[in-house]
Amino acid sequence: MEEWNNRELDSFLIEITAKILKFRDDKGEHILPKIRDSAGQKGTGKWTCFAAQEYGIPVTLIGEAVFARCLSALKDERMLASTRLSKPIVDRIQIIPNKNDFIKHVSKALYASKIVSYAQGFMLMAEANRKFDWKLNFGAIALMWRGGCIIRSRFLGDIKKAFDKKCDLANLLLDDFFAKAIEDAQKSWRIAVTSAIHLGIPTPAMSSALSFYDGYSRKVLPANLLQAQRDYFGAHTYELMESPGVWVHTNWTGKGGRVTSNAYNV
Predict the structure, then answer these.
(1) CA atoms within 13 A on the CB side of 109
(2) What is the pTM assigned to this prediction?
(3) CA 141 → CA 14, 59, 122, distances in Å?
């Protein structure tokens, strides 16, 4: 992991993680396995999730990070579940035939996930910027975080460059540098996530990052079925591809009438 900190993942959190992994207690034993796996939280992640929901921005990685802490706090239940619930029976060697290669895959997967996490964070700030007319300078914000913040990293310099090139950049994923970085890491990203799934290892943030990327990069999503379901059970109406902005209701059951609207008010 120390090697990771000499490349694109160079950051304060990677630095301290490498130190934690090596740290030994007074008995000369690694201390990390002795720490109880029940994480606490002060609320900053939850506040971000509240804001994301209020403004309708999919800040999924921070959300998953918060819920992962909540899950970890269910220690007694997890102890019971570990004895009652089945786990995948797999050949680890078959899934990870070469440990060194897999470590490289994980490194690239972490980098790609990190890009998505920051992209989501800047999406949230951009929406708040529009809502409150704040005139935020996102490049300056990235630069500010490099000084004394726990998320400080080399990576923030690349974010500043992206916003310096295009101050109204809709999403970091659309910047040439980050788009290429994702392209280069994508195969490893998918290998890391699918390997974790086969092994039964939870990777909520990394998996969520990949799911967001796949959703964001698709021209069409299955949300049309969701809209149809909402209209069926609640007459919430939906738009047709051929007439966006006009909201219609289908008489799914043969009872009741038909609704159209040019403003969503149902």
Answers:
(1) 25
(2) 0.91
(3) 21, 18, 10
Mind listing the pLDDT tens digit for each residue in 39-70? 988 888 999 999 999 999 999 999 999 999 99
DSSP codes, 90-123 = --HHHH-S-HHHHHHHHHHHHHHHHHHHHHHHHH
Phi, psi of 136 (to 5 degrees): -70, 140
Q: What is the mean pLDDT of residues 148-155?
A: 86
Residue 74, SS3? coil
The segment(s) of the chain belonging to CATH 1.10.1040.10 are: 36-216
Tokens for 190, please give them: 């998918």
- Report the first-to-last Cα separation within the chain, whole angstroms: 53
Q: Select the CATH number that applies to the domain covering 36-216 from these four: 2.40.370.10, 3.30.360.10, 1.10.1040.10, 3.30.450.20.
A: 1.10.1040.10
Chain centroid to Cα 152, Å, comes to 18
Which of 15, 195, 194 has the alpha carbon at shortest distance from 98?
195
